[in-house]
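Here's what a typical entry looks like (ABC transporter substrate-binding protein):
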Amino acid sequence: MSNRIDRRTLLKAGSALAAAPIGGSFLAAPALAQGKVEVSFFYPVAVGGPITKLIDAYAADFAKENAGITVKPIYAGTYQETIVKAITAHKSGTPPVTSVLLSTDMFTLIDEDAIVPFDDFIKSDADKAWLASFFPGFMENSQTGGKTWGIPFQRSTIVLYWNKDLFKEAGLDPEKPPQTWAEQVAFAEKLTKRDGANTTQWGLQIPSSGFPYWLFQALAIQADAVLMNKEGTRTAYDAPGVVEALQYWVDLSRKHKVHPTGIVEWGTTPRDFFEKKCAMMWTTTGNLTNVRTNAKFPFGVGMLAAGKRRGSPTGGGNFYLSKKASRAEQEAAFKFIQWITTPERAAKWGIDTGYVAVRKDSWDTPAMKEYVAGFPAAAVARDQLQYAVAELSTHENQRVTKALNDGLQAALNGTKTPEAAMKDSQAEAERILRSYR
């Protein structure tokens, strides 16, 4: 899930951002006493709020346990703003030692020669066991060409949320979400309410702004279609399964009339859910804490309904290591990344934020077991990982993703048929990616 940035945008932004202060001061090489190392750390969030307090606490605790290493979090804005700042700092010669950036930024970072693989730092059996501990589904967007370029940290999948009270009103079992595409339509028909020509409650909302490609990829996976190859050099936007998935999405509004027409806003969909304007919604498991805090009714969390199969793309951010950092800085950052992704800390991060704890063994910790026992919905995204695939990621990712987003919005707005929209999207993606083959 993401907003991404392509090379041309980076180059255009480069000169301005290279001179811009970050967090009120210019990013420069750390001036520390001999033997001490400072790890500058870009994190994708605006300054302030509970997340920054968590990250600040981790940095302070790590420093207490590791004399001679200081971790300096720099809150760099949205994911899109953070990747621009990270690449610009790389070009100017003063990049952060490590950054949390989208897993799908991997090819962009490799193309910019901005990062190093983690393989050179994996030396001991304990290191190998640590690397093997992450869920395979999250490693699909972290490895390419036989090398590991990113370490999963704040990762997610798409899940279904539903209002149990509205299920009861509609005569549906409040504990059983739809399991198939056909059931999803049938449930949504019962859950849609109208006052004459005005729809007061939609059965289902799937957001189509912000990250339309991400929500759509779930439908494509469920239609047993693959959007891109592992090398990030080809797409298959016009494959029959992809067209079938888009037709299903369009039909929800235009044929079945259980879903709003046109573009459904990513940011307002949870609010619509809280206000009972929709009975079911698709959104990230990263919204779990938000929903738990703000829903004034009993709600359920479930895996997405299956078409030919179940499925969701993964999403979220990885740790990366800067190529221009010194070896001592890289080693210190690697130590911090291992420290913050221990089973206990991965579990705590998942509990505190709603992201999926990224290691299998973190789910066996006492804290996570207690959390899941009291809030079983927290385990849904983990259980869905067995059906998950890598999020859409290619070279020139911003442009290739935009080609798909443009086609999706044309079909949802009714200006193109799903087949024509995907044919045009594929032609544009092919034009962009041809040179990478």
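Residues 2-33 have pLDDT under 50 and may be disordered.

More examples are in the samples folder.
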